[in-house]
Amino acid sequence: MTTPPIDRPALPLPENGTGEPLLEVRNLTKWFPVNSSGVIRRTIGQVQAVDGVSFTVPKGGALGLVGESGCGKSTTGRVITRLYDPTAGEMFFEGQDMAKLSKKQMLPLRREVQMIFQDPYSSLNPRHTVGTIVGVPLRVHKVVPDNKVLSRVQELLEVVGLNPEHYNRYPNEFSGGQRQRIGIARALALQPKLLVADEPVSALDVSIQAQVVNLLQDVQREFGIAFLFIAHDLSIVRHFCPEVAVMYLGKIVEIADRESLYHRAMHPYTQALLSAVPDVKQAAIGGRRERIRLTGDVPSPVDPPSGCRFRTRCQLAQEICARHEPPLMQIGPRQKVACHFAGEIGHHPAQPVTAPLYPEEPGASASAQTQESADRIREVSSDPGWGPRWLDLGSGSVVER
Ligand SMILES: Nc1ncnc2c1ncn2[C@@H]1O[C@H](COP(=O)(O)OP(=O)(O)OP(=O)(O)O)[C@@H](O)[C@H]1O
Ligand code: SF4
Ligand SMILES: [Mg+2]
């Protein structure tokens, strides 16, 4: 069998900036308590799975969320769909803060935000027929009268490329790719405005992956659905997502439009991830073809490193990286980065770009000018989405759109 390529043209950015936000996430945090064993269980720590992430997903757009295993991608997706309650932060969906809604108040919004799960084997109940699996949301939310459920299920199966006559079959009668299509049909049943696709193809055979990505792009275009597309590496989201956020140990370290991220990544972690993508143009990694190998293990999210969480694996780390957490600064019209030494590969500055924020550091000055520079950095580090101003890394001044 030949592998069909991902043959849909890459989605362009909406012309009016990134478009109106459908979802705006501010400082979203999800910690899981770690309890002691024994009869009296006490909380002895917290897994800081997601720790203050901010981003927006534009209406009908697609944001990719990428990072190594355990960095908090699924947890972010599960909090957004309210499968988990957030520990802190805000999630505005069409202006309404989902984080503050009770389970009952969330019910109408559940229709609008659906999830496609990573594992098409465990996410479908093996005892239910496809007709029941896809039909249940239609019945629960009373989307169509009971006597129309079957015909709607068949329509949905057709949309995702399955035989509509197979509605009475069980999941084990389908291949992995077909099961993922069933999961997509279930997610589409409620005509959501936002789909959280949690590594929707990583459990599938390589030959099937492109077919499923093509299908997701088709449904996005046809129904205008916005996507939060979660993936392990940067190769799949490159095609699907006009904007991509890179996560490391519960934090976003870089977020940018496709062009900036793949050609002018500024964070050492993004640069390392890009060097592992075989078909990224040479220019994206500064003309270097060799892979940047990340040494050491990802630290535990129960006890993350102080300051920059990436510092234990970063070749550029200096003392300031252990003392201060770098803010996520907007450094271009559609690029933000959290690194004291942000710069293109091979061109990282010798002095921290964030120095004005830390007048107490050895050798720093506390002049009025420094204070002004610090205010400028804070100004471009505050909100999710793209502001009209950004820090020009070359000159240290703020540029206005
Ligand atoms: N229910 C839970 N209770 C306690 N810890 C959890 C829970 N769910 C996730 N975690 C922890 O939170 C961290 C982030 O997990 P998460 O599943 O979000 O990562 P991920 O980026 O999706 O990883 P993967 O790529 O392997 O799917 C991990 O350390 C994980 O062990
Ligand atoms: S802040 Fe320091 S440790 Fe973190 S990525 Fe930048 S250089 Fe590396
Ligand atoms: Mg996951």
Short summary of the structure?
The chain has helices at residues 73-80, 103-112, 130-140, 149-159, 176-188, 206-223, 234-240, 258-263, 268-275, 319-323, 368-379, and strands at 21-35, 43-58, 62-66, 88-93, 96-97, 113-116, 194-198, 226-231, 243-248, 251-257, 329-332, 335-337, 389-391, 398-400.
| Radius of gyration, CA atoms, in whole angstroms | 22 Å
Architecture of the largest domain, according to CATH? 3-Layer(aba) Sandwich
Strand adjacency order, main sheet: 6-7-8-3-9-10-12-11
Q: Biggest β-sheet, characterized? A: 8 strands, mixed
Keywords: ATP-binding, Nucleotide-binding, Transport
InterPro entries: AAA+_ATPase, ABC_transp_ATP-bind, ABC_transporter-like_ATP-bd, ABC_transporter-like_CS, Oligopep_ABC_C, P-loop_NTPase
Pfam families: ABC_tran, oligo_HPY
Region (Disordered): 350-401
Architecture overview:
Belongs to the ABC transporter superfamily. It comes from Nocardioides anomalus. Keywords: ATP-binding, Nucleotide-binding, Transport. The protein has 401 residues and is α/β, with parallel strands linked by helices. It has 2 domains: 214 residues, Rossmann fold (3-Layer(aba) Sandwich); 152 residues, no CATH class. Helices cover 27% and strands 21% of the residues. The chain contains 11 helices and 14 strands. The chain has an 8-stranded mixed β-sheet, sandwiched between helices. Strands 2-1-4-5 form a 4-stranded antiparallel β-sheet. A two-stranded antiparallel sheet has the order 13-14. α3 packs across α4, α3 packs parallel to α5 and α5 runs parallel beside α6. The longest helix is centred in the middle third of the chain and has 18 residues. Bound molecules: adenosine-5'-triphosphate, iron/sulfur cluster (SF4) and magnesium ion. The site of adenosine-5'-triphosphate has 13 residues, from β2 and α1.
